[in-house]
Design brief:
The structure holds 2 protein chains of 2 kinds. Chain A has no helices and 12 strands. In chain A, strands 2, 5, 6, 10, 11 and 12 form a 6-stranded mixed β-sheet that branches. In chain A, strands 3-9-8-7 form a 4-stranded antiparallel β-sheet, with no helix packed on it. By secondary structure, chain B is mostly beta strands. Chain B has no helices and 11 strands. In chain B, the strands form 2 sheets. In chain B, strands 2, 4, 5, 6, 9, 10 and 11 form a 7-stranded mixed β-sheet that branches. The radius of gyration of chain B is 13 Å and the shape is globular. The chains are: A mainly beta, B mainly beta.
């Protein structure tokens, strides 16, 4: 079975400092992995996705993530946080191979301090 | 990217009534759509897989008679919350995929349901 664990429920950073949101996954096959962002009372926006191509994935708004099979990790990073980055972030692994049935992590709330 | 439209974005209904939420794929055909539920400050939980022309597949613990799903066409799936109660208040989100060869699912904007 597939699963994903987001190691931090809350992360606080100062504006202009790096962001690291951690995610570990478990999958019985080569997974597809995603990071989504959700602003308050809004839908989901795809930040980036890994689908067995390059292990370093660049997304929107300066975010990137690196797929590390040996560590079963897919951590999300950004060099410099902006106030507008404050939101809930979800790490997602695809369900059974070939489907789009997503398994969501529990989410990490990012707070950006001025 | 592909667009999925969900309607309404917000709905308030009285306890005991039914509410229908629509999920449309605007520029592609979706043989499969998914319905998720998000409790306040919680993650998204998959409720069911909606299959065009056949019965939906519900996740364990989801009442199929409570949450009726109909996928009448390749671009439309509906979720009807029947005899709604305050505990059904939640954020409901649908997603759809491009099918074979696609690499991701696309999400609707979500529907905030409040049952009073």
């Amino acid at each position: 079975a597939q699963s994903v664990t987001q190691l931090d429920s809350h992360v606080s950073v100062s504006e202009g400092t790096p962001v690291l949101l951690r995610c570990n996954y478990s999958s019985s096959y080569s997974p597809s992995l995603f990071w989504y962002v959700q602003h308050p009372n809004k839908g989901l926006q795809l930040l980036l996705k890994y689908t067995s191509a390059a292990t370093l994935v660049k997304g929107i708004n300066g975010f990137e993530a690196e797929f590390k099979k040996s560590e079963t990790s897919f951590h999300l990073t950004k060099p410099s946080a902006h106030m507008s980055d404050a939101a809930e972030y979800f790490c997602v692994v695809s369900g059974a191979s070939g489907t789009y049935k997503y398994i969501f992590g529990t989410g990490t709330r990012l707070k950006v301090l001025a | 990217g592909a667009v999925v439209s969900q309607h309404p974005s917000r709905v308030i209904c009285k306890s005991g009534t039914s509410v229908k939420i629509e999920c449309r794929s605007l520029d592609f055909q979706a043989t499969t759509m998914f319905w998720y539920r998000q409790f306040p400050k919680k993650s998204l939980m998959l409720m069911a897989t909606s299959n065009e022309g056949s019965k939906a597949t519900y996740e364990q613990g989801v009442e199929k008679d409570k949450f009726l799903i109909n996928h009448a066409s390749l671009t439309l799936s509906t979720l009807t919350v029947t005899s709604a109660h305050p505990e059904d208040s939640s954020f409901y989100i649908c997603s759809a995929s491009l099918g074979q060869g696609g690499t991701e699912a696309f999400f609707g904007q979500g529907t905030r349901l409040t049952v009073v």
